[in-house]
C-alpha cells in the first residue's frame, strides 16, 4: 500500500481515538508502540518470501527492492506519527534526555543514508549500462540461424558487459582505491569500455564504512527506556540500516569491502527482530557465496544476467557457422530469450526503483526537518545558527 | 594514391599509404572502376527486383568481395585518420555500407531454405566488420582530445569546448548515420554517451568540481561552505551558459539526421551532469539554522538554478527526472531563503538589548543593521519576489492577509506582493521595537530625540532605495514624515516650554510694577534650566546633519527672539550692571552659540560655559 495512504489511515485511527475523551493518558502511547512493532514485524515477515511475479531463487530482485523501499516508507511514516503523537501526550518529550540524544543519533544516521541513496542511484546507472549491452547481445543471438557477424557482434557486447561487471566489482571491493588505479581502470586503453556514469560521491567515500558508521552506538534500549519512545527510535534505526545495507548489497556502489559482515545488533526478543534478522541472514549467506566468485552486486537480475552471459560467451567463442541449427544453437537461442526477458524486467523496473530511492531520499530530508523543528520547539535547539 | 575515373581509390591489393601520393599501378586499374559501377548496378537491381523465386546471388558475392577489400583498406589506415582524407572516397564507402545493410535486410526476408544462407552469413560478417571499423573510429574521434598530445600538428582539436573540428564532426555524423541505418544504434549511442560523459566529467574537473558528500557538507564550517558555494555557482553558470548549449549543438551535429536520438542523448547527458551538480545544494538545505546574512549566498544559488530550470530539455523520461529534481532543489533553496529572511523578524522581536538604552538617544545598532540588510536584500528584489510568491503558493496563503493598520489608507497594500508584505511586516516590527526601546528613556526629551534619530535614519535609507520605497508606497513615507514632525513638536514642548515660561513677559509685574524679586527668580530659573539642558543635551547625538540643524534652527528661532526681548525689556530694572551681570548670565548671542552645541554628542567636560 502506498506510504501516503497508510499514513493517512493510521493517523486517522489515532485521531479518532484522540477525539474521544480518554481518561487514561499513558496507555494509548503504549498501544501505539505495540501496534508499530507489530506492523513492522508483519511487513518484514512478508518480505521473507519473494514477490509473486518473481522467478528468481535469490531474494534481491528489482521488484523485491521496490517492496522493501515501500515497507521503509510505511514504517517511517508510522514511526514519525508515533513520535509526534507521543509528543502530544507529553509535550516536548522528544527534546528531553535520553530521547533527544537518541533522536540526534538517528538523524545523523539518516544523513549517512542520504549519501548511500546517492551512491546506489549511481550504481543503478551501471546496471542500466549492463542492460543496454545485454540487449544488443540478446537481439543479435535471437536471429535464426545465427550468422558469424551476429555471433561476433554478440560476443563483443558480452565481453564489454563482463568487463563492466568486473570493473564495477573491483571498484566496489578494492580496499585501497588510490586515484591512479581508479583512473586507470576508468580510462582504460581498451576503447570498447567506456564509463557508464558519472561519480556521485566523493573519491574516498566507502559504502561499507558509511554503513558501519551507521551502526555505531546502535544498541537496543534497556530496561525502563525500552518501554518508552526509545524503542521505536531503535527499531527505525535498525530498519534504516538494514534497508541501506540491502541496497548496497544488491547494487554496485563504491567500496563495499567488508559489508557482508555488517553486524546487526538485535535482540531476538521482539517479533520484528526475527524477521529482519532472518532477512539479513539470508542475504548475508547469498553474499558469502557470491563473494568468492566476485560479483557486481547481488541484484538477482544481474546475477542471472551474468550466468547467461557466461553461457552465451562460451557459445559464441566456439561458434562456427554451418548453415543449419543444432542443439547448441537452440540452447543459445533459449538463453538469449531469457536474457531478453531480464532486460525487459530491467527496462520496466529500474526507473521505478530509481524513483523510489529518490522518494526515500526526499522523505528522509523532510522528516529530518520536521524532527529538528520539533526538537527546537522543545526548548533545546539543535546546533546553534551557522 | 592512384585515382580511378570516379575518384575511387580501390587499393585492391590491400596496400595503402596514408598521404603517399605514389600511384599504385594495378593491371585492373581501369577495369575495377567499371566493374565497381556494374556491381553496384547489379546489386541495386537485385534489391529492387527482389523476389523469393530464383535469385542469383553472384552479384552479391561480387559485391561482398569488393566490400571486403574496401573495409580492409580502411582498417589498415591509422586510427583517427581513417576518414577525412578524401571526401568522395569516404562518401562512397558509407554508401556501400548502407547498401550492405539494405541487402542484408532483404536477404533476411528470404525463407531459410532458399539457399541464401551462406550468402547471408558472408554479408553479415562483412557488415559486422564494417560496423567494428566504424564504431572504433567513432570512439577514437570522440576520444580525440584525450589522446592527442598538445601541439601535435595533425591534431584537429579546436580551442573551445567540445574541441572538435568541423571535419571530425562531419565524419562522426556520417558514421552515426551509417551505424543507425545498419541497426547498430545501440552501439553508437553507448559509445557516444560514454565518451561524452567522460569529456564532461573532465570539463568539470578542470573547474575544480568535486563531489561533496552530504555527511561531509553537514560538518563543514560556513567559511568553507562559502568557498564551495562560490565555486559551485561559477560552475553552474558555466554549464548553463556554455557547456549545455555546446553539448546540445554537438548532439545535433553528430545526429543531424536523427533529431529524436540527438534529443534523447542530450537529455540523458544533461540529466546525468545535473544530478551530480545538484547534490551540493541538496546537502546545503538540510536544515540547519543559517543566520540572516547568509541569505544572499542562497539567493545567488537560486538565481543560478533559475537558468537551469529554464533550459529546454524535451519530453522523454530522463527529462522528467531532470525537471522534477531541479525544481525540487530550487524550491528547497527558496524555502531556505524564506526561513533565513524570516529570522530577521525573530531577531528584531527578541532584541531587548538588556534593557539598557542606547547612549545619547542615537540610532540603535538594530535599526542600522535592519535597514542596511533590507537595502542589500532589495538588490535581489526580483528573486525575492519570486521566492516569496512560490512560498505563498505552497502555503496557500491569500493576499488578503494585509497588515491591519494599512487596510483603509493604503490600497497599494491590497495588491502588494508577498515580499512587499513581508517587508512591511519587518518595518512594523522594527517600529514596535524602537517604540519599546524609546520607553526605556526616563527623560521624555531624550525619548523623542531617540525616536527622531531612528525614524529619520529609516526614512533616509528607504529613500536611498527606489525598490524599497516603491514597495512600501508613497503614503507610507508621508506618514513617517508627519510622525517625525510630531516628535519634533513634542520634543520642543517637552524641553523648552518650561524654559520659555521663565522668560515670558507675563507675570513679571506685581501691581503694575515690575518686581525685581520675580525678575531675579526668573533669570535664576532660566539659567538653571538652560544650563541643565546644555549639560545633558550636548551629550545627546543627532547624527543626521539635516535633522540636527532643523532642531537647532527651530530651537533658536523660538528661544533667541524670546530671550532677546526679555533681556531687552527687563535688563534695565537691575540696580547696576554688576547686579545685572550676576543674574543675566547669558547674552542673546551666547544663547545662539550655545544652542549650536546641542546634540553634538560631546562629553560633559567638553561643554563650554
TrEMBL record, chain A:
Transmembrane residue ranges: none
Keywords per UniProt: Membrane, Transmembrane, Transmembrane helix
Cell compartment(s), UniProt: Membrane
Protein name per Swiss-Prot or TrEMBL: Myb-related protein Myb4-like
Pfam families: ROH1-like
InterPro entries membership: ROH1-like
PANTHER family: BPS1-LIKE PROTEIN (PTHR31509)
Membrane topology, from the record: Single-pass membrane protein
Family: Belongs to the ROH1 family.
GO cellular component terms, semicolon-separated: membrane
Taxonomic lineage of the native organism: Eukaryota, Viridiplantae, Streptophyta, Embryophyta, Tracheophyta
From TrEMBL, chain B:
UniProt keywords, alphabetically: Exocytosis, Protein transport, Transport
This protein's GO CC annotations: exocyst
GO biological process, one term: protein transport
Pfam families linked: Exo70_C (PF03081)
Residue numbers spanned by region Disordered: 1-28
Keyword Metal-binding: no
Family per record: Belongs to the EXO70 family.
Full protein name: Exocyst subunit Exo70 family protein
Amino acid at each position: 500500500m502506498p506510504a501516503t495512504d497508510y499514513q493517512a489511515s493510521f493517523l486517522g485511527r489515532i485521531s479518532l481515538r484522540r477525539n474521544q475523551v480518554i481518561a487514561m493518558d499513558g496507555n494509548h502511547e503504549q498501544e501505539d508502540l505495540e501496534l508499530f512493532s507489530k506492523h513492522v514485524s508483519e511487513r518484514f515477515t512478508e518480505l521473507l518470501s519473494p514477490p509473486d511475479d518473481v522467478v528468481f531463487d535469490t531474494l534481491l530482485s528489482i521488484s523485491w527492492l521496490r517492496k522493501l523501499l515501500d515497507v521503509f516508507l510505511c514504517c517511517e511514516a508510522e514511526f514519525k506519527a508515533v513520535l509526534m503523537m507521543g509528543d502530544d501526550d507529553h509535550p516536548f518529550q522528544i527534546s528531553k534526555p535520553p530521547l533527544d540524544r537518541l533522536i540526534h543519533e538517528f538523524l545523523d544516521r539518516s544523513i549517512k543514508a542520504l549519501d548511500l541513496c546517492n551512491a546506489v542511484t549511481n550504481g543503478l546507472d551501471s546496471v542500466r549500462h549492463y542492460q543496454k549491452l545485454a540487449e544488443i547481445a540478446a537481439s543479435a543471438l535471437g536471429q535464426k540461424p545465427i550468422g558469424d557477424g551476429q555471433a561476433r557482434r554478440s560476443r563483443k557486447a558480452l565481453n564489454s558487459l563482463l568487463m563492466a561487471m568486473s570493473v564495477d566489482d573491483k571498484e566496489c571491493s578494492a580496499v585501497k582505491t588510490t586515484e591512479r588505479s581508479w583512473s586507470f581502470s576508468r580510462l582504460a586503453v581498451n576503447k570498447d569500455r567506456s564509463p557508464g556514469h558519472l561519480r556521485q560521491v566523493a573519491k574516498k567515500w566507502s559504502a561499507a564504512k558509511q554503513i558501519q558508521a551507521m551502526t555505531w552506538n546502535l544498541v537496543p534500549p534497556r530496561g525502563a527506556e525500552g518501554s518508552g519512545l526509545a524503542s521505536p527510535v531503535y527499531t527505525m534505526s535498525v530498519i534504516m540500516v538494514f534497508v541501506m545495507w540491502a541496497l548496497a548489497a544488491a547494487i554496485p556502489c563504491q567500496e563495499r569491502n567488508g559489508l557482508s559482515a555488517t553486524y546487526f545488533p538485535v535482540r531476538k526478543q521482539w517479533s520484528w527482530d526475527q524477521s529482519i534478522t532472518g532477512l539479513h541472514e539470508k542475504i548475508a549467506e547469498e553474499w558469502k557465496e557470491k563473494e568468492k566468485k566476485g560479483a557486481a552486486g547481488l541484484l538477482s537480475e544481474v546475477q542471472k544476467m551474468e550466468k547467461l552471459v557466461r553461457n552465451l560467451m562460451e557459445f559464441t567463442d566456439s561458434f562456427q557457422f554451418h548453415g543449419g541449427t543444432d542443439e547448441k544453437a537452440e540452447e543459445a537461442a533459449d538463453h538469449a530469450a531469457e536474457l531478453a526477458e531480464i532486460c525487459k524486467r530491467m527496462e520496466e523496473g529500474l526507473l521505478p526503483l530509481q524513483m523510489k530511492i529518490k522518494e526515500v531520499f526526499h522523505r528522509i530530508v523532510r522528516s529530518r526537518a520536521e524532527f529538528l523543528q520539533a526538537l527546537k520547539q522543545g526548548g533545546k535547539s539543535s546546533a546553534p545558527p551557522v | 594514391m592512384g585515382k580511378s575515373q570516379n575518384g575511387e581509390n580501390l587499393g585492391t591489393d590491400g596496400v595503402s599509404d596514408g598521404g603517399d601520393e605514389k600511384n599504385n599501378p594495378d593491371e585492373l586499374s581501369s577495369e575495377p572502376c567499371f566493374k565497381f559501377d556494374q556491381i553496384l548496378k547489379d546489386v541495386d537491381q537485385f534489391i529492387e527486383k527482389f523476389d523469393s523465386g530464383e535469385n542469383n546471388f553472384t552479384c552479391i558475392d561480387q559485391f561482398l568481395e569488393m566490400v571486403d577489400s574496401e573495409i580492409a583498406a580502411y582498417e589498415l589506415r591509422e586510427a583517427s585518420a581513417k576518414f577525412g582524407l578524401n571526401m568522395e572516397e569516404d562518401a562512397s564507402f558509407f554508401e556501400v555500407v548502407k547498401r550492405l545493410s539494405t541487402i542484408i535486410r532483404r536477404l533476411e526476408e528470404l525463407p531459410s531454405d532458399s539457399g541464401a544462407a551462406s550468402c547471408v552469413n558472408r554479408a553479415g560478417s562483412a557488415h559486422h566488420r564494417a560496423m567494428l571499423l566504424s564504431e572504433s573510429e567513432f570512439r577514437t574521434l570522440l576520444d580525440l582530445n584525450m589522446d592527442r598530445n598538445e601541439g601535435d600538428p595533425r591534431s584537429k582539436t579546436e580551442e573551445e569546448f567540445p574541441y572538435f573540428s568541423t571535419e571530425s564532426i562531419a565524419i562522426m555524423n556520417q558514421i552515426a548515420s551509417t551505424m543507425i541505418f545498419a541497426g547498430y544504434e545501440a552501439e553508437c549511442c553507448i559509445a557516444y554517451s560514454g565518451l561524452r560523459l567522460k569529456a564532461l566529467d573532465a570539463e568539470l574537473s578542470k573547474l575544480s568540481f568535486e563531489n561533496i558528500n552530504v555527511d561531509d557538507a553537514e560538518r563543514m564550517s560556513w567559511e568553507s561552505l562559502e568557498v564551495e558555494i562560490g565555486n559551485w555557482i561559477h560552475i553552474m553558470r558555466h554549464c548553463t551558459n556554455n557547456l549545455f548549449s555546446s553539448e546540445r549543438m554537438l548532439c545535433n551535429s553528430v545526429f543531424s539526421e536523427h533529431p529524436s536520438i540527438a534529443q534523447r542523448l542530450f537529455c540523458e547527458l544533461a540529466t546525468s551532469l545535473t544530478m551530480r551538480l545538484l547534490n551540493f545544494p541538496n546537502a546545503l538545505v538540510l536544515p540547519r539554522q543559517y543566520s540572516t546574512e547568509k541569505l544572499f549566498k542562497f539567493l545567488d544559488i537560486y538565481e543560478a538554478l533559475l537558468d537551469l530550470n529554464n533550459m529546454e530539455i524535451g519530453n522523454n523520461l530522463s527529462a522528467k527526472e531532470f525537471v522534477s529534481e531541479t525544481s525540487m532543489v530550487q524550491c528547497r533553496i527558496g524555502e531556505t531563503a524564506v526561513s533565513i529572511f524570516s529570522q530577521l523578524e525573530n531577531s528584531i522581536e527578541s532584541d531587548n538589548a538588556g534593557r539598557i538604552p542606547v547612549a545619547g538617544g542615537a540610532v540603535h545598532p538594530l535599526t542600522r543593521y535592519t535597514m542596511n540588510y533590507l537595502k542589500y536584500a532589495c538588490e535581489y528584489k526580483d528573486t525575492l519576489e519570486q521566492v516569496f510568491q512560490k512560498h505563498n503558493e505552497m502555503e496557500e496563503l491569500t493576499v488578503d492577509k494585509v497588515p491591519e493598520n494599512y487596510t483603509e489608507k493604503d490600497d497599494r497594500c491590497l495588491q502588494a506582493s508577498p515580499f512587499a508584505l513581508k517587508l512591511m511586516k519587518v518595518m512594523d516590527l522594527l517600529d514596535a521595537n524602537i517604540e519599546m526601546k524609546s520607553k526605556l528613556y526616563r527623560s521624555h526629551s531624550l525619548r523623542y530625540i531617540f525616536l527622531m534619530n531612528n525614524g529619520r535614519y529609516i526614512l533616509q535609507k528607504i529613500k536611498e532605495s527606489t525598490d524599497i520605497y516603491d514597495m512600501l508606497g508613497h503614503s507610507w513615507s508621508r506618514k513617517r514624515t508627519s510622525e517625525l514632525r510630531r516628535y519634533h513638536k513634542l520634543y520642543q514642548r517637552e524641553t523648552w516650554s518650561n524654559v520659555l515660561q521663565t522668560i515670558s513677559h507675563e507675570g513679571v509685574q506685581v501691581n503694575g510694577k515690575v518686581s525685581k524679586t520675580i525678575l531675579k527668580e526668573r533669570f535664576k530659573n532660566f539659567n538653571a534650566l538652560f544650563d541643565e539642558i546644555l549639560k545633558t543635551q550636548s551629550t545627546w547625538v543627532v547624527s543626521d546633519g539635516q535633522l540636527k540643524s532643523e532642531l537647532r534652527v527651530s530651537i533658536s528661532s523660538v528661544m533667541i527672539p524670546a530671550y532677546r526681548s526679555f533681556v531687552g525689556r527687563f535688563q534695565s530694572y537691575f540696580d547696576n550692571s554688576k547686579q545685572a551681570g550676576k543674574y543675566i548670565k547669558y547674552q542673546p548671542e551666547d544663547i545662539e552659540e550655545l544652542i549650536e552645541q546641542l546634540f553634538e554628542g560631546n562629553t560633559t567636560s567638553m561643554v563650554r560655559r
